Amino acid sequence: MEQLRVVLAPMEGLTDFLMRQTLTEASSYAWCVTEFLRITQQLLPESTFLRHMPELCSKSQTRNGTPVHLQLLGSEPQLMAESAARAAELGVAAVDINFGCPAKTVNKHRGGAALLNEPELIYKIMSAVRQAVPKQIPVSAKIRLGINNTQELFDNVAAVAQANSSWLTIHARTKSQGYRPPVDWRAIADARCHANGMPLIANGDIVSVASAHACRDITGCSTLMVGRAAVSQPGLINQINRDTTALSWPSVHQLQQQFLINMQGNDSGVVGRYKQWLAMTALHYPEAAAHFNRVKRIKTRTEMLMAAAV
Asked: Is 215 a catalytic residue?
């Protein structure tokens, strides 16, 4: 059976440059995808692309050589195409288009999953981006099963495929579900016949080795995208694709200490990000839960650095 490949999912407010660097050094990913860069009314300057994706200055790779793909979000085909072309000029490895974000603040401006009832527009965006980017640079998309149901799923998959996209990632929930269960991996399998040979990547509720294998068996996808579980269990991806054991708490704690040391920003931002990751790992590591209880009232970076070193 073909070995599973795992992609680190884009997660707004979570998988920034430093988190991508940290997680890709802890586990072996096929590639990772940035948080979305919102494209609205005008072409963004180069400085915005470089600030959003610093890896553009290092051959579109993390420090350990994991490829990084830029995700764009918007609804205007020509502007999306111009933005993708600018990213290509800056050396991006690949461009991904977000049609999956369920956030109301994004959807009310016709972004993300709000477009899932407009397969014609999805085709226009994907086709414009594909034509604007050199053929050696992959162009992909990420969608959900639909807005409230799967009625448009097959048309959306066909639209992405007809635009000559390199692959399509499908999150196995609808927009209205948000992140609530259940996922419908079977719908991804059913969509395959509308993909016209375009590779599909499965996403949604892959939280363990067992669920990764089950997802592969049901969807037929040999590449999976993993999100929050990759953050809460930094060694999970190597467990999936290399059959290793879970990372020990000392190893995870060391990753988090280095993350804290390397973070930039004001006290509230740095401390908040550290607590966020610590709380997520507490779901799997009792030691993390105990450490979180010790530091949860700390408000300054200096105090947190001292506490994390214990």
From this structure: no
Extract the annotated binding site for FMN. Answer: 71, 142, 171, 203-205, 227-228
Cα dihedral 81, 76, 142, 283, rounded to 10, equals 110
Dump pLDDT digits (tens) for 66-77: 999 999 999 999
In CATH terms, the superfamily for domain 249-308 is Dihydrouridine synthase, C-terminal recognition domain (1.20.225.30)
Contact present, 295 and 309 (Cβ < 8 Å): no
List the structure tokens of 152: 């448009």
Residue 59 clears pLDDT 80, i.e. is over it: yes
What are the pLDDT digits (tens) for 95-128?
A: 999 999 999 889 988 899 999 999 999 999 999 9
Tracing tokens 């940290």 back to the chain, one arrives at: 22
Q: Which of 140, 145, 135, 108 has its CA nearest to residue 125?
A: 140
First vs last C-alpha separation in the chain: 45
Half-sphere exposure of 116 (CA within 13 A, CB side): 30
Determine the longest span between alpha carbons in the chain, in angstroms. 56
pTM of the model: 0.96
CATH superfamily label, 5-242? Aldolase class I (3.20.20.70)
Q: Which residues are annotated as a binding site?
A: 71, 142, 171, 203-205, 227-228
DSSP state for residue 113 in the 8-state scheme = G
Handedness of CA 255, 258, 259, 260 (dihedral sign): positive
**Span(s) in the chain for CATH 3.20.20.70:** 5-242
Domain limits, CATH 1.20.225.30, in the chain: 249-308
Which among 32, 57, 101, 221 is annotated as catalytic?
Answer: 101
